[in-house]
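Q: Can I borrow your eye for a moment on a structure tokenisation matter? Would you mind producing a protein record, from residues through to fold? Write it directly below this note and I will take it from there.
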Amino acid sequence: MHRVAMAVLSVLVLAACNAASDPRQETTSSSASSSTSTTPPAETTTTTAAPADPDVAAAAQQLVGAVATSVDLEAVEAIAAAGDARYAWLLSDFLRFLRPGPTSDAIVAAIEAVTDFEMPLVGTPWGAATNYLIAADIPAPPDFQNLKGQLFTFIEPRWRPIFEDPEARIDYRYLNWGGVRPDDRPLRGFDQPCLGGCIPALDDPGVTDAAGGDWYDDDKIIFGVSINGEARAYPKNIMEVHEMVIDTVGGVRLGIPYCTLCGSAQAYDLDSVPDGIERPLLRTSGLLSRSNKVMYDLNTWSVFDTFTGEAVSGPLREAGVE
């Protein structure tokens, strides 16, 4: 058996957790007319039904089953020999957590063996391989949700519910690590640490009126929300730190995610849930889907499509929350 120790990348802390007392962490509020918005339908998940060779399926399970102690290069070699391009997705996921070196080189060689991919001279192996797989639209291998879940929940056990819904409308090929851990602090849990480093949501921020907002230059970007005659401006520099605000505007409870990588901001009505469903508490999971932040409900760990507001996994998917 050829095994090498797995070198997992340390967590990159992208945001400070103790920012709520800074006066710049306020938003501005004023009166204005109400507005409404619509969202496009959610994407469907791409799946594959073709069975895998039993030997390569066993090798894939062997690879993820050994992850707690090693990267099993014998399993990597077996996957390469099978020539099933779909398993390049699993190999690419391993690259996300490995430092450059002989182990990552062996995985790159296996990806090249099962696909038409040739590693470029620039960029990271994981980024280059993943970009190729997306562009080529290689389907996922059988049982990919489970295989990927074993790897990712070894890295972060709190992600387990995200991989447990067999009916989840998530394309797990595109799901990957954003470099931070989940924000699972309770509402207004400003005094609680982000374990392992997270992007901390800003709950019920203090506000100033528009005239008192001279701490933010007039030519800077804000995200504006106007409901029932009340308007509020969320400065972009604050949203870049927190990427999620929970607030009430015009009597409506809102979840406002902002994806810095996508440049996208939305405001979702958290009161619009079926009877008997607890109002969602939106948080940032630390995962990305094609560079778009993956937000989830802390109460149920149901994942939401950040662009459409549709629950795509977990109890809230079952309840049809959108």
Observations:
- Residues 3-47 have pLDDT under 50 and may be disordered.
- The two ends are 49 Å apart (CA to CA).
